[in-house]
């Protein structure tokens, strides 16, 4: 973690790690929490493996969808860690993503109350980090982490986990 380049979030999710992992790796589950509500998410490609595509779209009205995430997975450690970047698109071409290029690392750890969920977003320079923070990194990624927690806590209870 480099405080001049990186942004982080941490949250305890009151559900087992496998439920959080499933919410990240199952397209039908990811669509339910990945974008801040009331915006709707559609998963175009979710190939959770190193080099696999991570492509989502978003819609304000549920009818017209626009690009949201065009990225590639760099590291996938089953049940523990996902790393992806939008600096390379799903065809492995260098990209100039808006609003900022980034590499995001999601880690899932054990916690007495469920899952220790951590996000580390790396930027290439302090200006990109500052821009991401100004655009609402904490609010946006925080609300999405809250939606993930609500989704898996609700579904984990429903499935008896």
Automatic annotation (TrEMBL):
One Pfam family recorded for the sequence: AHSA1
Cross-referenced InterPro entries: ASHA1/2-like_C, START-like_dom_sf
All residue ranges annotated as the Activator of Hsp90 ATPase homologue 1/2-like C-terminal domain in the record: 14-153
Coiled-coil stretches noted in the UniProt entry, renumbered to this chain: none
UniProt signal peptide: none
Record Gene3D superfamilies: 3.30.530.20
UniProt family annotation: Belongs to the AHA1 family.
Protein name as annotated: SRPBCC domain-containing protein
Upper taxonomic lineage: Bacteria, Bacillati, Actinomycetota, Actinomycetes, Pseudonocardiales
């Amino acid at each position: 973690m480099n405080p001049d380049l990186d942004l982080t979030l941490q949250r305890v999710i009151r559900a087992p790690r496998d439920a959080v992992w499933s919410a990240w790796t199952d397209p039908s589950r990811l669509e339910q929490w990945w974008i801040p509500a009331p915006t709707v998410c559609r998963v175009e490609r979710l190939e959770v493996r190193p080099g696999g595509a991570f492509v989502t779209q978003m819609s304000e009205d549920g009818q017209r969808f626009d690009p949201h995430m065009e990225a590639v997975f760099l590291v996938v450690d089953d049940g523990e860690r996902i790393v992806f970047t939008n600096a390379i698109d799903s065809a492995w071409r260098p990209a100039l993503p808006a609003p900022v290029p980034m590499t995001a690392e999601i880690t899932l750890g054990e916690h007495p109350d469920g899952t220790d969920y951590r996000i580390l977003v790396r930027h290439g320079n302090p200006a990109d980090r500052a821009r991401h923070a100004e655009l609402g990194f904490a609010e946006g990624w925080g609300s999405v982490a809250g939606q993930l927690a609500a989704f898996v806590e609700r579904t984990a209870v429903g499935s008896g986990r």
